């Protein structure tokens, strides 16, 4: 069926090859472009009288009849109606973009061909009413999906902003779970998991900041004690401060807060030596050197450089062959890694490809999940490395 109400009728009729002529009833009252072919696809002569086609069918086992007619449809306002009676099973193919409004009988089959809806009917009276050109209405956005997407994006941005200074393995794992739930269209659970990730990340950042402040306060207390000559009990404070810094570096922020607090209290409680001035002077010199060296190391702690490794042979072609579904940006980053001995800092990836933190973080997580790369901490930076295996 066409937009203007014209119907293209196509049907087959079995015939007796010994008969010279056969009369076939056509659907409708006016016809054009009548074409009849036999079972060998050869054209056959036919003439129309009223609604009957007389066909020279001698030698034909089957006839294929095709014609156009505008007499099977009617229109009232915007509503089109197709109405006729068929002695055989019939498939009606509606115009593209049709909206079915009413059916005289239920079809036994329905589907689409080239984006056009078709209906299959049993023999009998057939009536189909439909509209053309209805505007497409965009579905209302799912509020749960919108909220889940916004929360996941917020968490990803928060983690990316903090990841250079603080390790957040727990929140990162929650975020991966939230994204998986989102991909499964489980938006409520995805939002809940993302909120858990954000809550844990905020808590860890607060503890991290508290540990950083506690270590800073302990350093100041030790420095003041040294300047004042209060060296008795100060060596224990220095040892505790070093332990606090070690805890801080491995992400044990709660332990770092406690140990740094003990170091600060010992430094505040330290006193000047009461005798044997030379001996205490020697201890004071050792403490000055130790604390000064430690503070110098802390001052220069943020200047980590990429560690030096022996030259690697990166078989990039093999990696790409084993992972044919990698995205274009994944392949480019792997090529960049292979050109740099298989390892670069995450910041170098962002700078090289002008990539936002969140995009680079997701890319690294994706390649890490495929076990192509691994990520380690070097100072305050993340080193991305192609796995040796």
Explain the layout of strands and helices.
Blueprint: E1 7-14, E2 21-25, E3 32-37, E4 46-49, E5 52-56, E6 62-69, E7 73-76, E8 79-86, E9 90-93, E10 99-103, E11 109-113, E12 116-121, E13 124-131, H1 143-162, H2 169-183, H3 187-228, H4 234-249, H5 253-269, H6 277-299, H7 316-322, H8 328-338, E14 343-345, H9 346-353, H10 357-369, E15 373-378, E16 381-386
Antiparallel strand pairs: 1-6, 2-5, 3-6, 4-5, 7-8, 8-13, 9-12, 10-13, 11-12, 14-16, 15-16
Model description:
This protein has 389 residues and is of the alpha+beta class. The protein folds into three domains: 7-131, Immunoglobulin-like; 143-299, no CATH class; 316-386, Arc Repressor Mutant, subunit A (Orthogonal Bundle). It is 44% helix and 23% strand. It has helices at 143-162, 169-183, 187-228, 234-249, 253-269, 277-299, 316-322, 328-338, 346-353, 357-369, and strands at residues 7-14, 21-25, 32-37, 46-49, 52-56, 62-69, 73-76, 79-86, 90-93, 99-103, 109-113, 116-121, 124-131, 343-345, 373-378, 381-386. Strands 7-8-13-10 form a four-stranded antiparallel sheet, with no helix packed on it. A three-stranded antiparallel sheet has the order 1-6-3, with no helix packed on it. A hairpin with a 2-residue loop joins strand 7 (73-76) and strand 8. It is elongated. The two termini are 62 Å apart. Residues 275-304 have low confidence and may be disordered.
């Amino acid at each position: 069926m066409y937009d203007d109400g014209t119907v293209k009728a196509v049907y087959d009729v079995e015939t007796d090859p010994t008969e010279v002529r056969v009369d076939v009833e056509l659907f409708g009252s006016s016809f054009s472009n009548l074409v009849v072919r036999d079972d060998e696809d050869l054209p056959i002569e036919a003439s129309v009288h009223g609604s009957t086609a007389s066909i020279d069918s001698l030698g034909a086992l089957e006839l294929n009849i095709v014609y156009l007619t505008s007499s099977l449809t009617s229109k009232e306002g915007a509503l089109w109606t197709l109405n006729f009676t068929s002695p055989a099973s019939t498939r009606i193919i509606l115009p593209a973009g049709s909206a079915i409004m009413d059916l005289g009988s239920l079809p036994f089959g329905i589907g689409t061909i080239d984006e056009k809806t078709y209906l299959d009917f049993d023999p009998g009276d057939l009536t189909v009413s439909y509209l053309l050109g209805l505007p497409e209405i965009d579905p209302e956005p799912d509020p749960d999906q919108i909220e889940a997407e916004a929360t996941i994006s917020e968490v990803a941005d928060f983690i990316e902003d903090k990841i250079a200074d603080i390790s957040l393995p727990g929140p990162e794992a929650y975020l991966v779970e939230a994204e998986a739930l989102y991909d499964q269209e489980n938006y409520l659970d995805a939002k809940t998991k993302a909120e858990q990730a954000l809550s844990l990340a905020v808590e860890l950042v607060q503890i991290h900041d508290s540990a950083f402040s506690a270590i800073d306060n302990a350093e100041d207390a030790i420095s003041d004690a040294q300047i004042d000559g209060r060296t008795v009990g100060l060596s224990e404070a220095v040892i505790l401060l070093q332990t606090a810094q070690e805890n801080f570096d491995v992400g044990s922020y709660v332990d770092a807060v406690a140990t740094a607090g003990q170091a600060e209290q010992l430094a505040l409680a330290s006193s000047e030596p009461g005798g044997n001035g030379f001996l205490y002077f020697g201890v004071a010199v050792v403490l000055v050197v130790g604390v000064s060296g430690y503070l110098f190391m802390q001052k220069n702690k943020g200047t980590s450089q990429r560690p030096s490794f022996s030259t690697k042979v990166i078989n990039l072609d093999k990696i790409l062959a084993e992972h044919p579904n990698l995205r274009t940006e994944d392949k480019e980053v792997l090529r960049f890694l292979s050109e740099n001995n298989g390892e670069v800092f995450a910041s170098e990836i962002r700078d090289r490809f002008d990539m936002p933190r969140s995009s680079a973080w997701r890319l690294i997580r994706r390649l890490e999940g495929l076990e192509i790369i691994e990520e380690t901490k070097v100072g305050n930076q993340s080193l991305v490395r192609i796995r040796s295996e």
